[in-house]
Amino acid sequence: MVVKFERPRSFKEGRGYTKQDWDEVSDNPPVTEETLRKAKPFTEAFPELTEEIRRNLGGRPKSENPKLAVSIRLDRDVVEAFKADGEGWQSRINEALRKAAGL
After folding, report:
1. What is the maximum span of the chain, computed from C-alpha positions, in angstroms?
2. In 31, 51, 77, 89, which residue has its Cα 20 to 30 A from 58's Cα atom?
């Protein structure tokens, strides 16, 4: 289904864009049924760019020894004591547990 949208022919204040915005795009041709039929999905129109974007999604590199997310209940004062020393409190708890387990 194609939604019909009548493009305003002149700038009208207060529609979410400025006069400068209007002037920068005012020479764009109207979108017609023909141009919509010819339109391609981004992945088909720009396959190399699509691959580059997918490769660069970010995140850190995969760890050889990934951590396991668990839910554990600890006393409030224990958590507050670790948090009081700043960032890295979860890693410090992990290290304390490793020592307690003899690892």
Report:
1. 76
2. 89
